[in-house]
Amino acid sequence: MKLDRRRLLATLLPGLVLVIWTGLVLALVGATLADTERAALGALLESRAALVLMLGLVLAGGLGWGVSQLYRDRVEAPARLLEEAQILLTGDVHRELGAQGSAENRGLTRAINDLVAQREQLRRDVDARVREASHRIEQEKSRLAALMSELTQSVVVCSLDGRVILYNNRAHAVPCLVGGPRRGGWGRADGARAFDLHRV
């Protein structure tokens, strides 16, 4: 696991502040004492130096642990959530984010998971509707083709720009459509080649 320098700094900072604060307090108190009082205080602290040092280390360790947990919940967890949310946003990935950190961060994670689930449901709904519409169009085309093949009249269907898009077998018998669609006889009035021809 990669070491986060900011978290390490946040963990060590309370101990450093405690050492600096203790040094300043001792210096200020020592400055107000007479020489005999200062010597007596020095002798008193010297005889209990191990106890004072141990208490200082315990206090610094407790403060460092607390700040480290606070940093994890309030800084690292939201940063991870932001990174994972961006992956979900930019990629075609569907997975549920794990709740971490503070209560607010866990609530935000649940909201993002709900939004991702809604997005996936909308995608499924749209895909289902597209498939249904395509199926209906294919059915309508089949019905139209069956109807036109049964007609005894010649039928040619053109687009607005004169492009032949649909015709039946009887259309070959029409004298004004010389050459039929395969020889370039059908198309726009300017003689341009016809495209998208569908024979039924």
Mind explaining what this structure looks like?
This protein is mainly alpha-helical and 200 residues long. It has three domains: 5-90; 94-150, no CATH class; 151-200, no CATH class. The protein contains four helices and two strands; from the N terminus they run H-H-H-H-E-E. It has helices at 5-32, 35-47, 49-90, 103-150, and strands spanning 156-158, 164-167. Strands 1-2 form a two-stranded antiparallel sheet. Helix 1 packs antiparallel against helix 3 and helix 3 (49-90) runs parallel beside helix 4 (103-150). The longest helix is centred in the middle third of the chain and has 48 residues, at 103-150. Mean pLDDT is 79; it is low at 181-200.
Secondary-structure blueprint:
Elements: H1 5-32, H2 35-47, H3 49-90, H4 103-150, E1 156-158, E2 164-167
Antiparallel strand pairs: 1-2
Helix pairs in contact: 1-3, 3-4
For the largest beta-sheet, the strand count, sense and barrel status come to: 2 strands, antiparallel
Tally of structural domains: 3
Record the strand order, biggest sheet: 1-2
Give average pLDDT, whole number: 79
Q: What structural class do helix, strand and pairing data support?
A: mainly alpha
Q: Which geometry do the CA atoms define?
A: rod-shaped
